[in-house]
Amino acid sequence: MSLYHLVRPIAKYLQSAWRWKRLGFGEAPPIFGNAKPKSGSHLLTQILNGFCQIAPYAYVQTEPIRTVKKEGGRWNPAQVAESLQKIPAGVIGWGYVDATPENLQVLLAPGRVNYFLYRDPRDMLISHVFYATDMHEGHGMHEYYQALSDFNERLKVAITGIDRDGLYMVDVKKRYEGVFEWLEKPQVHCLRFEDLLHKQTESLSAMLGRLEESGYSLPHKSRAQALQILTETVQPKRSKTFRSGKTGEWKKYFQPEHKALFKEMAGDLLIRLGYEENNDW
Question: Could you tell me the fold of the domain covering 28-273?
Fold first, then answer.
């Protein structure tokens, strides 16, 4: 092998490293965008990709980090925390993870930026049923939902949960226990799916503010320019799992029996989350 062929890879590496440093990659704090499943994670990842246009972030990770495996079952907590730990400065990760002690130890460390997205539980349930029944044949509830007579019966199961015949899914109230764990952490910027759609400027500005609170200053972009770029990234219809991208759709599907069942199972859940003032909805 000639000297040229030995030196060339080293030169290319040094050139890449110089370019990385010159552009500021590695200086921006690691970001993790977390979401409650079926709560608009597609919008969150679009915004996170927008951050790559306003700050020197190298990329947004392609695959989400999960607590629950796609095929069912749960990942070892240590494995999940290790994946979170591996997100370096200048890189954005995303996923669906719980507030386990292992994850909190990583994510709440100084110098990190965290976002958590959640949604009205009623709309989340509607999205879940459609997704598991019609869009994801590998979903653990797919065959069971397909075997039920209609959407109304599927929605009842989604509300109450199930634990029989090898199927296990918690009820709607237990689904949201983990949401409150994130809401209680001041180091995590929590936001609603509904606000990303209907209070967009305010929500995106707050997300920028959380990045700036980490001590990082946006390079080469004014606040107005950065906000405009993020606003342009929000395009719900570009998601592979896009169905309607609307809020309040539960009103089309919740029959009186669903409302009564939800109130019985969820108690004051909607009030605690700020979606209702009382249970007379």
Answer: Rossmann fold (3.40.50)
